[in-house]
Specification:
single chain; mainly alpha
């Protein structure tokens, strides 16, 4: 019974954010994803490189919508994506043809390493998983996947976050760098 009682929660949901916060988060996410998509579709078009991966959508929620969260800070954004990408590629190479084992190993190990390095960024788990399940376009990148798209895409989004989250006096980003 005690096991199930732990699942009821301990508090109520947090209050709704202001309309300003909602709209500013929307603007940041729009500009951040637009910047990454521009590089992907206009600059990298015709090359084997990719820049836009699904986990960047989740990063946008954090760095534009939850700017004060420890999980949204630059160290976590960059470190979480890059480390998780390396781990995901390694898991794919370590367990060829065993996608279920590679996928589970990639995500679980990414979480472990992000905790150990103080770079926990939940979208990093998706970045590790994408390295395994992302298909031939991603697999052909090998460990380059950690730099492009994971590292460079995160840096582009960080640059937008630094500007958009500091333009107004009502926001500040980051809370910490290291």
């Amino acid at each position: 019974m005690k096991f199930f009682s732990k699942m009821k929660g301990v508090t109520t949901s947090p209050p709704r954010v202001s309309v300003f916060e909602m709209l500013w988060s929307w603007l940041g996410a729009f500009l951040g994803i637009a910047a990454v998509a521009f590089v992907h579709y206009r600059i990298f078009s015709g090359t084997p490189l990719v820049l836009i991966i699904g986990s960047f959508g989740a990063s946008a929620v954090l760095i534009y919508g939850a700017v004060r969260s420890p999980l949204a800070q630059p160290r976590n954004l960059i470190g979480g994506h890059v480390l998780s990408a390396v781990i995901g590629v390694a898991a794919f190479k370590l367990f060829p043809g065993q996608m279920e084992l590679a996928a589970a190993t990639a995500v679980a190990t990414a979480i472990l390493v992000m905790h150990a390095t103080k770079t926990l960024h939940p979208p990093g788990g998706a970045t590790a998983l994408i390295a395994v399940i992302g298909g031939s376009e991603i697999h052909q990148l090998g460990f380059l996947y950690a730099l492009v798209p994971a590292g460079l895409g995160a840096v582009v989004m960080l640059a937008v976050a630094l500007v958009i989250n500091n333009v107004t006096s009502r926001r500040r980003y980051p809370e910490f760098w290291i």
